[in-house]
């Protein structure tokens, strides 16, 4: 996961949830599971949790935080991160449910 990739993945997952769910109760449960999985993985990457090392390695990143911030595209400093950067990242994490809901909404309009 990364800040560059997560939003489109969440929109796509939301659309998939909308299309495969047989009811709102099921859709809500799938939303919660999806958000929990994304946040657990992405926050763990951002915090450089040891269990995420293989993901960073697979993505050819220096660390999980490097992958989350730079996605192999940017060159932001991922080692000396300011409080401002941490706050911005927390705000981005807070948008994850919005992206998922956007996907559901888009899929429901096209059905």
Q: Would you give an account of this structure?
A:
There is one protein chain. The chain is mostly helical and 111 residues long. The protein has one domain (6-110). The chain contains six helices and no strands. Helix 1 packs across helix 6 (96-110), helix 2 crosses helix 4 and helix 2 packs antiparallel against helix 6 (96-110). The longest helix is centred in the N-terminal third of the chain and has 23 residues, at 24-46. The protein is elongated, with a radius of gyration of 15 Å. The mean pLDDT is 94.
Short summary:
Helices cover 70% and strands 0% of the residues. The chain has 111 residues and is mainly α. The radius of gyration is 15 Å and the shape is elongated.
What is the count of structural domains? 1
Q: What helical percentage do the residues reach?
A: over 70%
Could you tell me the number of beta strands?
A: 0
Instruction: Summarize model confidence as the mean pLDDT.
Output: 94
The biggest beta sheet reads: none
Structure annotation, total helices: 6
Can you tell me the overall shape?
elongated
Q: Mind telling me the C-alpha Rg?
A: 15 Å
Question: SS-based structural class?
Answer: mainly alpha
Distance between the termini: 28 Å
Question: How large is the share of residues in beta strands?
Answer: under 5%
SSE topology string: HHHHHH
Low-confidence stretches are none
* Multimeric state: single chain
